[in-house]
From TrEMBL:
Similarity comment: family membership: Belongs to the kynureninase family.
Gene3D superfamilies documented for this protein: Aspartate Aminotransferase, domain 1 (3.90.1150.10), Type I PLP-dependent aspartate aminotransferase-like (Major domain) (3.40.640.10)
Record EC number: 3.7.1.3
Protein name: Kynureninase
Record note on quaternary structure: Homodimer.
Function: Catalyzes the cleavage of L-kynurenine (L-Kyn) and L-3-hydroxykynurenine (L-3OHKyn) into anthranilic acid (AA) and 3-hydroxyanthranilic acid (3-OHAA), respectively.
Length: 395
């Protein structure tokens, strides 16, 4: 059994705070600060340029990728780190589309995160493809034999609705299309089985449930059967098979390394590497069971105490990720009032209160405090203040 008391203690959470926003930014593992500080004083400062070899900075994107692979049902040597998720979406979708040159359609759904859709739209304009966007519940029916790429975010960032990766991948393959799965709200939150689902490409960020810190590098996975064929399109020197030959002709590295672009963010990746230590000894099946326990308890307690709120997430836990949304016409102000009481979730336009549950550090006490705080604020209307209606830059 996974010891979630141990994992909770690994985080440096401010006292008096109930943190239910790890689906936007995971909290800091105490060891991350120590590790980064050591990297600065012992590696950057002392080794200077030799750190690329001596401290293993150059190999770090693949080594850290191997640690993520275990959490998403992939094998070692199949995942590499770097850049932001938006860039990794571009790389995966462009590579997949290039493998189906006689087809034009990229299919996604309106529950996808806007950045993924913007990237796919920009790519479609550049390569004369078409981005087709349907409602999340219509994706399966929209898979047709003109499809090049199915680009889906497995867990909807607003509702927590979870797509069936295995079924959609099978259907896409039946019509000859390739799949790109965005795991932004899946990695470290639900049980992901990329190889078992026979997915083609996957990408994700590491600052949400993986707790790598603000701006932590993204990851990309390519199925081993495609990894030596997929063209990176963003052909950077670090994805070249011999970067230090400084050859003027681009030749992709073997396998997943070709998806590297430029110099990796070593400091950020060091913080992420420390954050991944917390996952040692965590069983993903235990994590999923615990996540379901927490979200079920939260829904039950909120529904029993807050008649004004409407559940905006699937009721069936098997169709839900590790977050819960409730709708309220004044959701923004309600969330500001909650945050003022030390209960941190977030707001997603137009009217959703969103709460992420991360079993690594959330427990049933957090569930109770958040549900009871919400009930109190709605009952006494303490959210009804002008300053709580002022929108900040980041919501
Ligand atoms: C969080 C998130 C992003 C953010 O992309 P960045 O490039 O890391 O800012 C993109 N897509 C999805 C689905 C997300 O949930």
């Amino acid at each position: 059994m996974t010891d979630f008391n141990r994992t909770r203690q690994a985080f440096d959470l401010p006292s008096g705070i109930t943190y239910l926003d790890g689906n936007s930014l995971g909290p800091m593992p105490t060891s991350a600060a120590e590790r980064v500080s050591r990297m600065m004083s012992e590696e950057w400062s002392r080794m200077l340029i030799t750190g690329w070899n001596k401290a293993g900075w150059y190999a770090q994107p693949r080594k850290v990728g191997d640690r993520i692979a275990r959490l998403i049902g992939a094998g070692s040597g199949q995942v590499v780190m770097g850049d932001t998720l938006s860039i990794k979406v571009f790389q995966a979708v462009s590579a997949a589309r290039a493998m189906r040159p006689d087809r034009r359609v990229i299919l996604s759904d309106s529950g996808n995160f806007p950045s993924d859709l913007y990237v796919a739209h920009g790519l479609a304009a550049a390569v004369d493809a078409e981005l087709r966007v349907v409602a999340p519940e219509d994706v399966e029916a929209a898979i047709s034999d003109d499809l090049a790429v199915l680009m889906i975010t497995e867990v909807d960032y607003r509702t927590g609705r979870r797509h069936d990766m295995k079924a959609l991948t099978r259907k896409a393959h039946e019509v000859g299309a390739l799949t790109v799965w965005d795991l932004a709200h899946s990695a470290g939150a639900v049980d992901v089985a990329l190889l078992d689902c026979d997915a083609d490409f996957a990408v994700g960020c590491t600052y949400k449930y993986l707790n790598g810190g603000p701006g932590a590098p993204a990851f990309i996975w390519v199925h081993p059967q495609h990894a030596d064929k997929a063209r990176p399109i963003l052909q950077g020197w670090m994805g070249h098979h011999a970067p230090f030959d400084f050859d003027l002709d681009y030749q992709p590295a073997a396998g997943i390394e070709r998806m590297r672009v430029g110099t990796p963010p070593v400091i950020a990746m060091t913080a992420l590497d420390a954050a991944l230590d917390v996952w040692e000894g965590v069983s993903i099946d235990d994590l999923r069971a615990r996540s379901i326990e927490l979200t079920e308890a939260f829904i039950a307690r909120v529904e029993a105490r807050c008649p004004d709120l409407v559940l905006h997430s699937p009721r069936d836990p098997l169709q839900r990720g590790s977050q819960v949304g409730f709708r309220h016409p004044q959701a923004y102000a309600v969330m500001q009032a909650l945050i003022a009481e030390g209960i941190i979730g977030d707001f997603r336009a137009p009217d959703v209160l969103r709460f992420g549950f991360a079993p690594l550090y959330n427990d049933l006490g957090d569930v109770e405090r958040a549900a009871d705080g919400l009930a109190r604020i709605l009952a006494n209307q303490s959210w009804d203040r002008d300053d709580y209606r002022q929108r900040a830059d980041v919501t």
